[in-house]
Structures are given as C-alpha cells and as structure tokens.
Specification:
Elements: H1 2-15, H2 20-35, H3 46-53, H4 61-68
Helix pairs in contact: 1-2, 2-3
Length: about 70
C-alpha cells in the first residue's frame, strides 16, 4: 500500500543521492499516488511520481481513468 510506496520513493531517492528534501518529497508523492488508485499497489509511473514530487497533481493518470470507466 502507501507505506510500501513511501519506502520505495525514499529508497530510490537515497540510491540516486538526492537531497534529503527531494528524497522525502519523492516518498510522499509515491504514497499519495498509491492512495489515488484502486487496490493495494502503487500503479503510478516514475514520471507521475516525479511530477507530483515537483508539485504536480496528486492523482495517477491511470487511476483517474480506471475510476471513471475509461482506459
């Protein structure tokens, strides 16, 4: 769920030697996106996580279509 997505975002930031604030933003963004899609897994792409971490919309593009019946 969101905890796993948060941990993955943090680990990715650490492995990429990002600044602490950017690493935290990446973890938070991954967790937010995990909560915006149905199910127990984060289906957001890396690009979606990075967009959210930079201040973009907190919704997976696939998740939005899945809820409205669009693919």
């Amino acid at each position: 769920g969101s905890g796993d997505a948060f941990a993955a975002g943090i680990l990715a930031g650490l492995l990429e030697a990002r600044a602490p604030r950017a690493t935290l933003a990446q973890g938070i963004a991954a967790a937010e996106l995990a909560m915006s899609t149905p199910g127990d897994a984060c289906r957001a792409s890396r690009a979606e996580v990075e967009e959210r971490a930079a201040g973009g919309e907190a919704r997976s593009k696939r998740g939005a279509g899945a809820r409205s019946g669009q693919s």
